[in-house]
Design goal:
Layout lengths: L7 E4 L1 H5 L8 H12 L3 E5 L4 H10 L5 E4 L4 E4 L4 E4 L4 H14 L2 E5 L4 E3 L1 H14 L9 E3 L3 H6 L7 E5 L2 H14 L2 E8 L2 E8 L4 H11 L7 E5 L5 H6 L2 E4 L5 H6 L2 E2 L7 H11 L4
Parallel strand pairs: 1-2, 1-12, 2-3, 7-8, 12-13, 13-14
Antiparallel strand pairs: 3-4, 4-5, 6-7, 6-9, 9-11, 10-11
Helix pairs in contact: 2-11, 4-7
Length: 281
């Protein structure tokens, strides 16, 4: 059997490791743990917060690292943060000024708290109506309902923002945001509802995954990344082996090195089997 060069796996959550039911399925859990037993480090790479990711790491049987907030933070399984790229007070103040101008509203991802407002709540209420539930633990969310409360958060450690509102207002807001040159911005649509994820310039999953590889003494050629969406582009391109899910849009599949099966047809486990556990089979 040929030995695989891969020593680090970066796995997106939604649409990749998780099925459409937002669960980790047994084939993925088994393949991931077999890879870890073979000496391959596993890292979740997600736009979610560390707290939102913890239950999925546990459901997967455990991982070694969690890259969260689209690459703004790298945390070990023991809870040690080895890398962070946060927003500055300037980022926060400018973002809030433009939100007020266009009638949209942010949520902010902090160390252990996510601050959210009425537009975020309406977004999740609509998701719950469409899907029957929302698979998110809201125990660490804190509601904000006044402009001065939002402004006070400029002194907090903020890793990421998500902006909610009417699609037309979001488009106008995003145009102004991009002109500042201060941010990374990814528009996304979930259950037909649009939102925009915001990080400080230079924050992305690819940069964070290579930082982790460097920390582990690995090269990019020893890294495999699996993903399905726009915020996975950078890690699919940074990794020595970028694996797109079959459920990914065409432009994501086009930039990856290979395409595996869908998230509901165990694409992650198939990729681990093919490229790590049985590379010469």
């Amino acid at each position: 059997m040929t030995s695989s060069p891969i020593k680090l796996i970066g796995l997106d959550l939604d649409g990749t490791l998780l099925g459409t039911d937002s669960q980790v399925h047994e084939p993925e859990r088994n393949a991931l743990q077999q890879a870890r037993q073979a000496g391959v480090a596993a890292a979740l790479c997600t736009g979610r917060s560390t707290l939102d990711s913890a239950s999925h790491a546990k459901a997967a049987g455990g991982v070694d690292w969690i890259i969260t907030e689209n690459g703004a933070r790298i945390t070990s399984a023991a809870g040690e943060t080895i890398y962070r790229h946060t927003m500055t007070p300037e980022h926060i103040d400018m973002l809030l000024t433009l939100c007020e101008k266009h009638g949209v509203e942010p949520s902010f991802y902090g160390e252990r708290t996510i601050w959210y407002g009425a537009k975020c709540k309406a977004f999740f209420d609509e998701i719950a109506r469409a899907r029957g539930r929302v698979a998110i633990d809201f125990s660490h969310y804190r509601y904000v309902d006044a402009p001065e409360q939002w402004r006070a958060l400029s002194g907090e450690t903020i890793f990421k923002a998500i902006v909610y509102g009417d699609a037309r207002d979001l488009d106008a807001w995003l145009t102004d945001m991009q002109e500042t040159g201060l941010y990374e911005a990814e528009a996304s649509v979930f259950c037909g509802l649009k939102n925009i994820e915001i990080n400080a310039k230079g924050t992305d999953k690819g940069t964070a995954l290579l930082e982790l590889a460097k920390h582990l003494g690995l090269t990019a050629g020893q890294v495999m990344a699996c993903g399905d969406s726009d915020n996975d582009r950078t890690m699919l391109q940074a990794a020595g082996l970028g694996v797109a899910m079959a459920n990914a849009p065409e432009h994501i599949r086009a930039l990856a090195d290979v395409t595996t099966d869908t998230n509901d047809n165990h694409g992650v486990s198939r990729a681990i089997e093919r490229y790590i556990l049985q590379p010469g089979a």
